[in-house]
């Protein structure tokens, strides 16, 4: 059974009700309005208590109740500290801070080496002169490090308190479950038997390993077998091409999995995995990886080494970030599913996934997209729905996604589409529901995707014409033919020639106007 608080639906209810049931009294007396009769709420408390005790009958045990109240207090205090810390820096910012510190340290080492080699002024004492120079260099390096160290320290504090919060919540769940298992104990010390190599190995796994001594099977399907662990010997099946371990109870994948050198398809969905082994980066032929429906907190940095990956499904986990360099090496990735996670930002390296055709990141906590997202010119399907109040705008380069066909931006807080939106000529499906849209107006949105594209295209031309007018008035050097060219281009757009925008905005340099390029 899943020990996490997420799987214990009564947890939040307990935290909101327990203190009132125990009957803690406020140290500050409640002031009452003497002109109003006292409100008798005695009938409410018993109803709440009865409801909770019906759901959790072991709460009649005073020892159990006291232990759970103490755990609730720990959870509340830890959450309070986390709120005080403020927003946690994203993973890319932390990685960048570490890289900058490493650069500063390397520069300091070079400076110190130069001081040793530098000639000493004749009138100065050699040791004193060197000490002063070294002190200045170290002080300067420390000043440069200070801001980056603050970022790292803040992230470490968040990590520490996140772990404390998790432990406190799990302890609260464990206390009650142990009481149920032991008939009312409150110490939470009795835990389920650990899963490990002492448990019997699935018979089909044994059969496969025995048959592998003769000829290694290329495709193995062990889904829905209630497997709790995978033997290390599985890493010896070097010729295996496809392995399906979905819908089991696996908590760990052994490092020996790196031995599957020929593996192209690896399915691990719907297990209890909290991490993947670093050795997964050695699967250089892996094309499809499905780890959806687990409890992964992060993907290993080594996953960037799986350079043959074409499809990666990491949806429905507990991810808060993607590896910083994931996009620099997964250049063949075509489909990426990361929905139903807690990701706050995408690393800038994602913009280097030039082969990407599908990106599904709905139901996360995204606050925006990397500025260079327009580089994903092969992207056809993009789902950013249900990031709610976190997602409020799109970058100006969004209009460079010239092959985009399906776009879902529903359930966010987007007020305006980027001015370049009208360039998305191939867009045929657009969902803007539940956004406080101003640009384009709601009545235009209700008319459908073509109306939105036409409105944004006209708006873009108006902006360009206005900028040109301002530029000409400032320079007082009107350029003949520009206005005529733009007006003709706009007329073509209105008459239904949707290719006009991409024709002018494209890479061809034959008829391009340098001044308009400058404005773009």
What is this structure's SSE topology?
Elements: H1 11-22, H2 44-55, H3 62-85, H4 91-117, H5 126-182, H6 203-211, E1 219-221, E2 242-244, E3 265-267, E4 288-290, E5 311-313, H7 326-329, E6 335-337, E7 358-360, E8 381-383, E9 406-408, E10 429-431, H8 442-446, H9 449-475, H10 482-494, H11 499-505, H12 514-519
Parallel strand pairs: 1-2, 2-3, 3-4, 4-5, 5-6, 6-7, 7-8, 8-9, 9-10
Helix pairs in contact: 1-2, 1-3, 3-5, 4-5, 9-10
Proportion of beta-strand residues:
5-15%
- The end-to-end span amounts to 57 Å
The chain-level structural class is mainly alpha
Order of strands across the main sheet: 1-2-3-4-5-6-7-8-9-10
Characterize the largest beta sheet: strand count, sense, and whether it forms a barrel.
10 strands, parallel
Number of helices: 12
Shape: globular
Low-confidence runs of at least 5 consecutive residues: 1-36, 41-45, 184-198, 482-512, 514-520
What can you see in these coordinates?
The structure is a single chain. With 520 residues, this protein is mostly helical. The protein is 39% helix and 6% strand. It has twelve helices and ten strands. It has a ten-stranded parallel sheet with strand order 1-2-3-4-5-6-7-8-9-10, with no helix packed on it. Helix 7 links the parallel strand 5 and strand 6. The longest helix is centred in the N-terminal third of the chain and has 57 residues. It starts with 10 loop residues before the first helix and ends with a helix. The relative contact order is 0.05. The N terminus and C terminus are likely disordered.
């Amino acid at each position: 059974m899943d020990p996490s608080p997420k799987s214990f639906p009564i947890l939040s209810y307990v935290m909101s009700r327990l203190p009132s049931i125990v009957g803690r009294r406020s140290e500050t007396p409640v002031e009452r309005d003497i002109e109003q009769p006292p409100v008798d709420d005695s009938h409410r408390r018993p109803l709440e208590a009865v409801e909770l005790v019906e759901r959790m009958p072991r709460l009649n045990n005073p020892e159990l109740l006291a232990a759970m109240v103490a755990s609730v207090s720990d959870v509340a205090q830890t959450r309070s500290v986390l709120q005080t810390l403020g927003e946690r820096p994203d993973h890319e910012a932390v990685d960048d801070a570490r890289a900058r510190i490493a650069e500063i340290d390397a520069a300091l080492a070079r400076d110190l080496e130069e001081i040793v080699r530098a000639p000493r002024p004749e009138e100065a004492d050699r040791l004193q002169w060197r000490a002063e120079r070294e002190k200045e260099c170290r002080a300067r390096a420390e000043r440069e490090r200070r801001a980056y160290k603050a970022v790292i320290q803040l992230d470490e504090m968040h990590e520490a308190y996140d772990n404390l919060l998790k432990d406190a919540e799990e302890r609260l769940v464990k206390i009650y479950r142990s009481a149920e298992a032991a008939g009312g104990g409150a110490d939470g010390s009795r835990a389920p038997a650990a899963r490990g190599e002492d448990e019997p190995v699935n018979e089909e796994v044994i059969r496969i390993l025995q048959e592998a001594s003769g000829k290694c099977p290329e495709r193995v399907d062990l889904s829905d077998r209630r497997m709790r662990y995978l033997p290390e010997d599985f890493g010896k099946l070097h010729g295996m091409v496809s392995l399906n371990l979905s819908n089991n109870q696996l908590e760990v994948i052994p490092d020996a999995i790196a031995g599957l050198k020929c593996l192209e398809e690896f399915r691990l969905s719907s297990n209890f995995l909290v991490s993947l082994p670093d050795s997964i980066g050695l699967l250089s032929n892996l094309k499809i990886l499905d780890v959806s429906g687990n409890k992964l907190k992060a993907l290993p940095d080594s996953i960037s080494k799986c350079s043959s990956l074409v499809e990666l499904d990491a949806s429905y986990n507990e991810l808060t970030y993607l590896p910083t360099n994931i996009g620099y090496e997964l250049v063949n990735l075509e489909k990426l599913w990361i929905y139903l996670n807690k990701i706050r930002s995408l690393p800038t390296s994602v913009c280097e996934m030039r082969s990407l055709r599908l990106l599904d990141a709905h139901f996360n906590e995204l606050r925006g997209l990397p500025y260079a997202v327009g580089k994903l010119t092969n992207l056809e399907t993009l789902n950013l729905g249900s990031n709610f109040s976190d997602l409020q705008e799109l970058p100006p380069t969004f209009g460079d996604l010239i092959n985009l066909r399906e776009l879902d931006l529903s359930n966010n807080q987007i007020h305006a589409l980027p001015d370049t939106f009208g360039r998305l000529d191939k867009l045929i499906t657009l969902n803007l529901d539940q956004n406080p849209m101003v640009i384009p107006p709601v009545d235009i949105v209700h008319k459908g995707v073509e109306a939105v594209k036409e409105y944004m295209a006209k708006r873009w031309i108006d902006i360009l014409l206005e900028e040109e007018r301002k530029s000409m008035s400032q320079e007082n050097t009107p350029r003949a033919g520009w206005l005529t060219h733009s007006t003709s281009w706009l007329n073509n757009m209105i008459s239904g020639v949707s290719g006009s925008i991409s024709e002018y905005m494209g890479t061809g340099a034959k008829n391009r106007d340098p001044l308009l390029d400058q404005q773009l």
